[in-house]
Amino acid sequence: MFTGIVEEIGEVTAVEQLTNAARLRVRGPLVTSDAGHGDSIAVSGVCLTVVEVAGGEFTVDVVNETLQRSSLAKVAVGDRVNLERATPAGGRLGGHIMQGHVDGTGVFLGRDENGVTTFALPKHLSRYVVEKGSIAVDGVSLTVAAIGDDQFSVALIPTTLEVTTLGRREPGDLVNLEVDVVAKYVEKLAEAHIRDQVHNRDGGTEERS
Question: Which positions does the entry assign to Lumazine-binding repeats (predicted)?
Fold first, then answer.
């Protein structure tokens, strides 16, 4: 589990294309200080498993499913990425509950002089995003300030702009989005309940153990 509080900005130092996958090497002196084989590190919001640690850098393999859903498919040597180690049991929940399972990508649209930043939102994710709710953008836990049919806005403080990659984003850049997992569970449970109610209303029978 992650909380969306970025620990440091890392740098991609190597990208190797594999069959239906990619191998990345990332420089991150802080997150590698206690990291070992098998540990989880979120790279711009994507939970990845460490396969090697050496000299302040760590190596991860990115499977095709992740490449299709995230911006890591376009990552290149020299790119900056947000890094966060998995939250330990009993650790402080500074942001919100995140799995590091990216739901899709959005597009950075712009930022005004007050730090209000707007992103394009894929239609299939819009139902999970609500005003004053939580959303993760490139692994950063943020509060939704405004929501439309195809975009949302967040208010970024100067510290967030400084210590994450969001301060370096240009219009048109892809960003990773993870919606609130609680909303997805609620939807799943509600669908079954509504389906049962409709079935019973229409005269159906239901066997219960």
Answer: 1-96, 97-190
> For residues 109 and 164, is the Cβ–Cβ distance under 8 A?
no
What is the rounded end-to-end Cα distance, in angstroms, of the chain? Answer: 35
Q: Over the stretch 25-52, which tens digit does the pLDDT of each residue have?
A: 999 999 999 999 999 999 999 999 999 9
Q: Is this model's pTM higher than 0.85 or not?
A: yes
Tokens representing 184?
Answer: 């997805």
